[in-house]
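Section 3.1 - Work completed
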Amino acid sequence: MKHTGIIVATVIVVVGLTAVYYSGVFNNQLHIFNHAPTLTIAYPGNETSLSRLVMVSGTAHDPDGDDQITDIQIKIDSNNWTDAQGTNLWSYDWNTNAGPDGTITISARAYDGNNYSPVQSISVTVANEQVMSSGTHRWAVFVAAANFPPDNKSKLGNGGLYLAENMSDYFITQLGYDTDHVIVLFDDGWIRTDNGYGTKQTTLQQLPHPYKITYGGATRDNVIATLDEVINESNQYSDSEVFLWFFNHGYGNPDARNGGKVLQSSALYLWDSLITDKDLGAILQPLKSHRTTVIVDACYSGGFADRTVASLPTSIFMKSGIPRNGRVIMTGASKFDVGYASTTQGPLFTLLWYQGLQGAADGYRPGPLNLGRPTHLKLFHDGKVSVEEAFYYAKYQLRTNKDFQTYKGMRPQINDRFPNRLLNLGGLILGQSK
């Protein structure tokens, strides 16, 4: 029996050593025979025509089964390889206005830490036309960054996107805005499952849309590039009309008195950074259009209109530089108050403002202390609704409608300089030529 035990022990030792030895061989073989990843470009399609902002997107896969894609790189024509965002689902923001028109090759490759995938390439045509097909000189930009916080409790859902698309349709069909001059920037350009609370599903540009408008992510680079392009294009025309809408989380401290905004600028979140009221003022400084409407619907946003509460101006040291002659600036809340939004319908102030713009606000006036009031005088009922009338309609509803009593503390603000404060009788009516 003792002899047998020794034999068994010896076998165990031999087998154990053998396993260690072959383990090293297998590891070396796995390293040698690592399969290269695969990659596809899902958007845009080959031989398509593109303009303005384009989100190149696709998928990548590791056939070894662990999906260990470490990097996606993209190359536009002869430029250097540059990193895209994401791995298995990836995307890259490409501003076609930054380069020449014509035939462009887009190439992409994936890397798994050991090998690159075969390069995938498509050919597209960039055609950034400067002439509007409708002959009108109107631009509209809708910006919403709603789902960037890490915790779901703070996310705002896709309601802002749905509202932006509804307003875009109205601007195109009812106000004469050309589809080529309507831009929607939302989150990072991806639609996520569960109304924005889930995982990446598809890009905005891959979804079917009734109109060919420009879609992209609400990143700082995209916002600045878009506004710069709108400014440069609209400045070519003396009758240009510009509409800018921002819906995001406002920056402030809800636990501090007045949101901590007494000696701070108003600010809002884009997808990847903050933008202050002074930042936006500096960006809009070159804009010449005397028919400009800016709406910022966010918490603590009154500083964008150079207002605190009750139309009281901010101090000279805190002015944003956004209000100017020919501009109407509105905010969904005061500088010291939070705003409210539906995750499926969008921000409350803009919902009411848009409702008023479609006809309900005809005849609304500022009233005492700019609180907003309806009037029955036929003089003010002309069948047309100005952006100011829509503002006072929204403010009146928040103050008097029992359905909104919980939210009346928002105290929206306005800085009206169209054509200027003293001579403003009719207000700025969107889509109306001089």
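Second construct:
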Amino acid sequence: MSNSPLNKAVVDAKIKELRISDVGKASIREIVALVNLVEEETGVKYIRMEMGVPGLPPAQVGVDAEIEALKKGVASSYPIIDGIKPLKEQAALFVKNFMNVEVSAKSCIPTVGSMQGTFSAFLAAGFVDKKKDTALFIDPGFPVQKQQMMVLGLKYETFDVFGFRGEKLRVKLEEFLSKGNINSIIYSNPNNPAWICFDEGELQIIGELANKYDAIVMEDLAYFGMDFRRDFSKPGVPPYQPSVAKYTNNYVLFISSSKIFSYAGQRCGLMVISDELYIREYPDLQKRFESPTFGTTIVLRLLYSISSGTSHSAQWALAAMLEAANSGKFNFVEEVKAYGEKAKVMKKLFVENGFEIVYKTDLGDPIADGFYFTLSYPGMTGNQLVENLLYYGISAIALDNTGSEEEGIRACVSFVQTQQFGELENRLRLFNAEFQVK
């Protein structure tokens, strides 16, 4: 690596300092810590693609509303655990306007980011039926959700959806569900990291099988409306954000403010439970948590125990952002299209320098340009690619961290600045010059 812009010895020393046994298999946070140390030591800025950090300013309507709420003194009082009324009402309206799904305000619950929402939902679903002790992840997916399952001590199974699109998905899901031990099905749409988007046919399959086998579907909508091939930005006007909620009442949706509103720092997301599931009674769940229904277990047992509610002022911010979107005053989709524009340029730079897109198509169509894309390099495993790129000032995580069976890496575009494109191109040329013959 004689042409590397970094001193290999410095990188190696920092890997040793952090006691990372295999840097190719490092977690997101380990890569973050490593890159921070190398940047501090060398002064060389990395092209950072390892973490899905919003790269845009927060929605001003939210900032203004939160400041106003703080001025009114909300910081001195505890929020209602299941959320302030304006937020719950605007959340239900948002789901109607942008998903064409009816849900009551009661069933829309603010959480400390979607992470707290998934943590609570995983825990509740793990005890709805003592015969069903396993969750099923449709991978690839967000690595930390598996970590949540590990922390909770709950079982899970996974499969890579790469070869099971369309009707093949039904066969694969039945393979797991027919065993009778699956309590929930978990996936993201658009997908982190492959950026594939389940279509209505696939969502119908998931919904029908959830009904047949009585499984709870957990749909992570962190990148709501960000399949930029279609315009989901107009409230009450089709097309709508695709969702399994049209095909089953056994659903929990997670809507994040971190990506669509760039409001990550205040940790305020939404968990939307179907009205039917909210009031459903599960004898085994009651025995475990002494709470009559799925919804009350989530709110009065789990969220109460974990954090006793979500930031009071941030709830007013999210309520204002949702209201602005619902009224058509704030086009949140237009605001985040910059991610797609960056992805288009970055993909081109990588492909021109010997890389290949791993998840290339979405049911026969070219994959959309969005928040993430996936890359491989001939002759390298994903773990080797992560490690080798680190010496060229480019950071990412391996696809096997996300549950993918494909060799490659996940690239996140959000934290890469447009003024870094020239440096990215230069480093990729050096990388390709070093490794293409090998």
